Amino acid sequence: MPPSALVEIRDLNFTYDKRPVLQGINMTFPRGKLVAIMGLSGCGKTTLLRHVGGVLKPNKGYVKMDGQVMHELDQAGLYAMRRKMGMLFQFGALFTDMSVYDNVAFQMREHTNLPEDIIHSLVVMKLNAVGLRGAQNMMPSELSGGMARRVALARTVALDPMLIMYDEPFAGLDPISLTVIGDLIRRLNDALGATSIIVTHDIQESLKIVDYVYFMASGVIVAEGTPDELRANQTGFVRQFMHGEMDGPVPFHYPGADYRQDLNLRA
Amino acid sequence: MAFIKTIRGIGHRVINAVWRIGVAARFFFLTIIYSGNSFRRFNLIIKELFSSGVMSLIIIIVAGLFVGMVLGLQGYETLKRYGSESALGVMVALGLVRELGPVMAALLFASRAGSAMTAEIGLMKATEQISAMEMMAVNPIARIVAPRFWAGVISMPLLAALFSAVGIFGGYLVGVVQIGVDEGSFWSQMQAAVDFREDVLNGVIKSLVFGTVVTLIALFEGFDAPPTAEGVSGATTRTVVTSSLAILMLDFVLTAIMFRGA
Description:
The complex is a heterodimer of chains A (267) and B (262). Chain A is α/β, with parallel strands linked by helices and 267 residues long. Chain A contains ten helices and ten strands. In chain A, the strands form two sheets. A six-stranded mixed sheet of chain A has the order 6-7-8-3-9-10, with helices on both faces. In chain A, strands 2-1-4-5 form a four-stranded antiparallel sheet, with helices on one face. The radius of gyration of chain A is 21 Å and the shape is globular. Chain B starts with a helix and ends with a helix. Chains A and B meet through α2, β6 and α3 of A and α5 and α6 of B.
């Protein structure tokens, strides 16, 4: 593993119910960088993220994080490794029975013996970083989608993780929230000196903030490069995905019988 | 072919049922193993005691009162035929302490607190809160399941005792205050006939068993629920149905063991 890489994925293969989901994936996530994994829905992006988090075990290959192979860790080792990680779920996954404040303080209370006044200062600082210091007493049900995502972001970075994973962080956000979340992801990554992996299909917003991109289709990497390299890439799939074209390597029509036959027309 | 299909279908169902029992047993052992944290941080259990125990008080008190009043009426009508109206207190107390208190309180607990636990955990799963906890290196069985389990086990005997106490008061209201059974006989015969070990303690043991089983079923169904609206609603229904049947079956088994020949 190159000394600057925090996460390395080599020859990763995963099969679910006899269906290959990931095939021969090789990726490197350098320390301090923000890397996006893009692709169509169902192409295996989230499955890949679950391998990095140690939730799934590969059939072949490995994910190495900070020098350790994830699927070889026992539960204690896995939990120790997860303390170095943070994950933002698609819709925030805030604990609905806790206030905003308690959500952000959750990991501090679970994993540290910090006195409550120190926890208070840390929580207020984290909430201030996402602009929601004033919402600390609100319940998750009182927050808008964008606010919930920002609280979840504050909770994700509560213990200053080395690796931050984002699962579709831009899904369902209005344009202002989209920009705010994108900006926060970049700023928090740089301020914490962390490494970030963003799984997304929001091209415009993610290309503005990431350092490197992997494109996936049907469980394999079909293209990779910096945002500028991908913008200049005119090959079939990347072009279709980047420009949102209806037809191309990903066909508009789902495979079916002959159209004339379906319409019962005579030849 | 149809015959083979039917046999295969039955086989699948049996294997699935056995599989689920195995998974539930493993879930139960993990809950016990990971309970240490709940006792070290007892405030987690206290919070759940409020949700499952305190919030069930109204339904337990109201149901207990009416069941006791019905027992008073029915008991009086029956005992009057044999000229034994003075034994009304004994009949009401034994009926409640031995049987109706633990069983009715458990049935009400299953439908009020059990279904709420299943729905809450099922929704936590559907909204990825449990996955989020796992990713934060916090064991969800230790943090979510164990405190709720112990809250259920602790609150069930207390609720059953309250049900019996309120029920006896209901029987007193109808029997003594309304019908006019002698108050002295009502209480003194009850005091003489109800044995602490034979009746009260056995009732407490029953409610402890029911509390364990109902809470476990509720938590397992929630944890095992498919993360969809339909999955959570199905799990909630299964909690009430399975718990109710388990309570009634276990009640027979426990009664046969405890009161055989007594």
